[in-house]
Write a structure and sequence with these properties.
By secondary structure, the protein is an all-alpha fold. The termini are far apart. This is HCP-like protein. Pfam families: Sel1.
């Protein structure tokens, strides 16, 4: 830290960047994002492309400075023009999502490709995703498979999960469940395992998809995924507790998990939560809450909830009896 501070006399862009990094990470000094921002800015203004990219990130996220998406794009652009692959990727994201600049999926694709050609793994994955979903280009599952495979073999865990999905569905490649499970496993067991891969692996173990059926393993992977906030896994984990799949039946735990998913606007879980409140399963019986969750689910288009709400209005279950409303919901 002291060495980089002294070298500021010579206004070396790299010294400015390194000193900013020390303040950013709290190396040899206290963590100070504002000071880090100031130093990164000085280095960026002197053409340091890594500092320019970091400055873009700080402007994008409002760290050490006020959030300013236009400035973020400006600095990403400067670094991208200098050939820095991370900045090219970040600029691609800005174009794809219309952050700080007019949305342009074709330009996003161009920047992902430039970055990917320089070997940046995240860009290789993102380029594969664009070909899979038709972002800035026509859908091409074969091309998506090829790009995911390159990134997956180099350790990109999101690409590993996507590769597993393509193998499972037989899209862009011949269907191969063994390979799907292999890649799901790689992604699920990576550092900070991919929550979607953990969920997918749970599915394979629950149903015995080219692995020996193992409900305990399925439960373990659903639990890992749910802990990372993946909605489908939270729903499935609730179902496991409700039915005793891979664990003992625990209606209270099932209710808690369904409530988390319902609050995230999942219409199926909202309906299930209404049923649990109506029947007093995993919680005290509460018809007011049952009606509330049936209404939420019905508004989101859940047919079972619409029927259940119709029943409530027909018989006056904690709502004023209203046969016309009942008819509307039945209809």
């Amino acid at each position: 830290f002291e060495y980089f501070k002294i070298s500021m006399k010579y206004v070396s862009p790299n010294s400015l960047y390194q000193l900013g990094y020390c303040y950013n990470e709290g190396i040899g000094t206290e963590h100070n994002l504002t000071k880090a921002f100031e130093l990164y800015k000085k280095a960026a203004e002197r053409g340091h492309c890594v500092a320019q990219n970091v400055l873009g990130y700080l402007c994008e996220n409002g760290e050490g400075t006020e959030k300013n998406l236009k400035q973020a794009v400006y600095w990403y652009n400067k670094a991208a023009d200098s050939g820095y692959n991370k900045a090219q990727f970040n600029l691609g994201l800005c174009y794809q999502n219309g952050k700080g600049i007019e949305k342009d999926e074709k330009k996003a694709l161009e920047y992902y490709k430039i970055s990917a050609d320089q070997g940046y793994l995240k860009a290789q994955y993102q380029l594969g995703y664009c070909h899979e979903e038709g972002i800035g280009t026509e859908i091409n599952k074969t091309k998506a498979f090829e790009l995911y495979k390159v990134a997956a073999e180099k350790g990109n865990s999101w690409a590993q999960n996507c590769l597993g999905c393509l193998y499972e569905k037989g899209e862009g490649i011949k269907k191969d469940i063994k390979q799907a499970v292999y890649w799901y496993n790689k992604a699920a067991e990576a550092n900070n395992g991919v929550e979607i891969a953990q969920y997918n692996l749970g599915r394979c173990y629950e149903h015995g998809n080219d692995v020996e059926k193992n409900e305990r393993k399925a439960f373990k992977y659903y639990e890992k995924s749910a802990e990372q906030g993946y909605l489908d896994a939270q729903l499935q984990l609730g179902y496991c507790y409700n039915k005793g799949i891979g664990t003992e039946i625990d209606k209270t735990k099932a209710f808690e998990l369904y409530k988390i998913a319902a609050e995230k606007e999942d219409k199926i879980t909202q309906c299930v939560l209404g049923i649990l409140y109506e029947n007093g399963e995993g919680t005290e019986k509460n018809l007011k809450q049952a009606v509330y969750w049936y209404k939420k689910a019905a508004e989101n288009g859940n047919e079972v909830a619409q029927y259940n709400l119709g029943r409530c209005y027909e018989y006056g279950n904690d709502v004023e009896k209203d046969e016309k409303k009942a008819f509307e919901y039945y209809e």
